[in-house]
Amino acid sequence: MTAALYLLRAGVKTAMIEKLSPGGQVLMTAEIENYPGFPEGLQGWELADKFANHLDKYDLDRINDEVRGIEIGAPFHTIKVGDEDVQAKVIILATGSRYRRLGIPGEERLLGKGVSYCALCDGNFFRGQEVAVIGGGNSALEEALYLARLVNKVYLIHRRDEFRGLLCYQDKCLTNDKIEPIRATVVDEIQGEDQVESLLLRNVKTDETSELKLDGAFIFVGFEPIMDFVPDEVDKEQNGVVTDVEMHTNIPGIFAAGDIRAKMCRQVASAVGDGATAATAAFSYLEQMED
Ligand code: NAP
């Protein structure tokens, strides 16, 4: 949305292609406390709405469909969207990331039956019950705090002794009566007939196994970039599309911004910065094409 805003303000004819609602992972985030200008914090959907509404006064072509692939060309690339082909001199890839799966038995089978990757979407179903949050990064800590408002107990299961997430979230989790950390422990299996009933745990130091009875398992073990539709010719690493500091990929006219990029920092603020940078570089590229 930031890239679209910058391109529109520079007078570039712009289409924004989105298969769901604009906002991505932000829509699944309960509270955003670190986006500058909002010291009290705000809910993810509120911030996404503000971004989307900001575009309303511009002549943006909004295409609500899924991109199936891209054909690289010159001067136009072709984007396969739904049943249509869209031609563009510049493409900014900004499809973000999706939750990583643990890949353990029971995870796929019990998805939607107690296994979830979204506390905001599913937390309400577990009011008064006991759940686990698996992971030790910012997502796991934040979501554990959100769930603790709804459920009776949150087991916070992390594979190491030290959490990866920010100290401010660690402090809040470790002083919350409803959150019980289980450290140096991995989940080997999610068990249950038609609904999650228990987790098979293994202490990684002692190799001791145990069964933890509960009602739900929320998995937050990182993200993987959404780049299935990105052509092979575009350079990628395991954690995203490779760009330079101005968001150029190796293919002229194709740029990338936000969580789809191979990078360390995955924040709303950094995605916004990437979007502005990509649009500015894209505008220079278009101007050079005209010369
Ligand atoms: P993350 O920072 O990559 O953390 C993933 C966590 O899952 C790590 O603690 C990791 O353990 C654990 N993990 C990974 N694979 C595992 C496996 N197979 N089994 C068990 N545990 C596993 O991911 P994230 O928390 O989703 O955050 C992603 C990015 O978004 C980060 O850059 C984060 O800072 C950002 N983010 C920021 C905020 C915020 O600023 N408020 C909120 C949410 C996310 P190890 O620690 O042992 O590697």
UniProtKB/TrEMBL annotation:
**Keyword list, A-Z:** Disulfide bond, FAD, Flavoprotein, Oxidoreductase, Redox-active center
Xref: Gene3D superfamilies: FAD/NAD(P)-binding domain (3.50.50.60)
Annotated FAD/NAD(P)-binding domain residues:
1-275
InterPro entries with a match to the protein in the record = FAD/NAD-bd_sf, FAD/NAD-binding_dom, Ferredoxin-NADP_redctase_2, Pyr_nucl-diS_OxRdtase_2_AS
Its domain of life reads Bacteria
Q: Which family does it belong to?
A: Belongs to the class-II pyridine nucleotide-disulfide oxidoreductase family.
Protein name per Swiss-Prot or TrEMBL? Thioredoxin reductase
> Which source organism?
Pseudodesulfovibrio sediminis
